Amino acid sequence: QVQLVESGGGLVQAGGSLRLSCAASGLTFSNYRMGWFRQAPGTEREFVGGINWSATIHYADSVKGRFTISRDNAKNTVYLQMNSLKPEDTAVYYCAASPRLFWDQGYDYWGQGTQVTVSS
User: Fold this and answer.
1) What separation in angstroms does the CA of 51 have from each of 80, 84, 119?
2) Among residues 14, 52, 85, 119, which is most buried (max CB within 10 A)?
3) What is the rounded distance in angstroms from the CA atom of residue 32 to the CA atom of residue 52?
4) Tens place of pLDDT for every residue, the chain, 120 residues?
5) Is-contact 25 33, C-beta < 8 A?
6) Where are the beta strands (DSSP E) in 40-76?
7) DSSP summary character for residue 17
8) Beta-bridge mates of residue 51
9) 49 near 65, Cβ under 8 Å?
10) CA dist., res. 88 & res. 84, Å (int)
């Protein structure tokens, strides 16, 4: 079965950086669209960014210019490099995967999440 395992979360000061990783198994990784989402306490889960099989990338406006998504198909891993972190970036970050073609078709598989806390 498909498994997504996030890592790399932690506590960082405002202005700092973190790199999240999501290791995928049980799927033909190169065929999947991968996404990053986050959820802060008391809020809905929100899209952070995504990358498809042709390396087309979309970002939420709130993270453009600060976050970078990349994928390594040889390692079945997608990354989220987060720079210039702000306290409002504090959330649980989730990795997601979908074999569906279009960006508006959502995601079918989810990781367990990793906590990112940015102190002011």
Assistant:
1) 10, 21, 28
2) 85
3) 7
4) 999 999 999 999 999 999 999 999 999 999 999 999 999 999 999 999 999 999 899 999 999 999 999 999 999 999 999 999 999 999 999 999 999 988 888 999 999 999 999 999
5) no
6) 46-51, 57-59, 67-72
7) -
8) 34, 57
9) no
10) 11
